[in-house]
Amino acid sequence: MDLMNYIEHGGVIVYILIVLNVIGFTIMLVKFIQIVMTRRYKVALLEEVIEHIKEKDVPLKDEHIIVELIKDEMSKRLFIVESGLGTVKIIASISPLLGLLGTVVGVLVAFDAISKSGMGDPSVFAGGISMALVTTVAGLIVAIPHYIGYNYLIGMLDSLESTVTSEILPAVYKK
Known about the structure:
The protein is mainly α. It has helices at about 5-10, 10-40, 40-55, 65-80, 85-115, 125-175.
């Protein structure tokens, strides 16, 4: 059985999962590029944050206030990079549920076929069972890479934020 046959056996739910898969991978690719570019231009980001903190006219002796200002400013600047990752998380969460929905619908179709024509011919309910299995697999195929990608990208963002934040504090006191 080739890929198109599997997709056809899965029905509408597999088509929905394919669309979600394309959306999720597109978002992950864009966010990965944004994180890499932000990491590459980290020095410019550092300078912007330092200048913004110096404009606030906060006494540099209170380190807690400076740290909070740095964290607040970094959150604002990385919000753009982080936005959209929630959609990837949602796709990772709902894909197995859509697969389970397809499983239930497939089993329902199989039992409906059995109730109409009896158990004499197994091919009567095979389509429903096939749909159930294909949608379950498709849901997991979509969910697993999105779950891994989401966690990887969040880890990259956290690492970037902590690296930049730890480099800003000495730079604020040096300038």
